[in-house]
Amino acid sequence: MREYLAEGKNLPETYHKALTILEEKGPVTECADWNTTQKEVCMTMFVEEPLSEPMISRCFIGGAKELQQYVMEMLDGILDFEVEKGNWAYTYHQRYADQVPFIVSELKRNPSSRRAVMTIRDKDADMGSDDPACLQHIQYFIRDEKLHCKVLFRSNDACKAAFMNAFALIMLQKRIADELSVPVGTYTHRANSFHCYEKDFELLKGYIARIHSGNDVTYDYEDEWQDLMEDYIPEIEETVKELRER
């Protein structure tokens, strides 16, 4: 499988380059588990300044509410109860949350450590599962007095998941950096299978057309979307309460 690197200053720039590479370079391969085909490459997205604006791409499924809910799922575990109730096999938060204290203590103990790794894959659960975790591990480094983050996905849906995954993981990186009292450094997002299913080929083409249209394909987070996203928090919390009580 061919390896590609998409680099950019901010997340949308990098993500848009990755989508373009997938559309232009990705071969169509079989995806037997889902009885379909897919465009697929090995992709590493390297974001030089993850908190630099613009932070929001217009090329993802959903809007401010969906992105806010996903951030809350990833950082705060608002849907972890679905695992407890047996409705879901896992959430990322449920898999990593108890490892955060180790990350913080390890990097305080030794800022040059290479041991600050959170494992998401559960071999006992995932090896026999029809829905194994896509995110495999997260590693943090303090270098140049900044907190750098590197994540590995075994599989990443380019059109419907990758942007939201990366945005939420950058928010997690910021949370940990704040706890360590260091600035946020680079964000590296590797997907061994960065793919688009056949049913979404036209969606991918639409993204690429939008990216190359010359029109604005981003939003600022701090000045445009942050308040908009946070305005949805009460509605999201009410929905979660209803789900929990069912």
Structural class: alpha/beta
What is the strand tally?
Answer: 10
- What is Rg? 18 Å
Main pleated sheet: 8 strands, mixed
CATH class: Alpha Beta
Principal-axis shape equals globular
- Structurally, the number of domains stands at 1
Per CATH, what is the topology? Thymidylate Synthase, Chain A
Structure write-up:
It is a single chain. The chain has 246 residues and is of the alpha/beta class. The protein has one domain (3-245): Thymidylate Synthase, Chain A. Helices cover 43% and strands 25% of the residues. The protein contains ten helices and ten strands. It has helices at 11-25, 64-76, 81-84, 92-96, 100-109, 123-126, 162-180, 201-211, 221-231, 233-245; strands spanning 3-8, 28-31, 36-47, 56-57, 117-119, 135-143, 146-153, 156-157, 184-197, 218-219. A hairpin with a 4-residue loop joins strand 2 (28-31) and strand 3. Helix 1 crosses helix 8 (201-211). It starts with a strand and ends with a helix.
Properties at a glance:
about 250 residues; alpha/beta; Thymidylate Synthase, Chain A; eight-stranded mixed β-sheet; two-stranded antiparallel sheet; 10 helices; about 25% strand
Fold blueprint:
Elements: E1 3-8, H1 11-25, E2 28-31, E3 36-47, E4 56-57, H2 64-76, H3 81-84, H4 92-96, H5 100-109, E5 117-119, H6 123-126, E6 135-143, E7 146-153, E8 156-157, H7 162-180, E9 184-197, H8 201-211, E10 218-219, H9 221-231, H10 233-245
Parallel strand pairs: 1-3, 7-9, 8-9
Antiparallel strand pairs: 2-3, 3-9, 4-10, 5-6, 6-7
Helix pairs in contact: 1-8, 2-7, 2-9
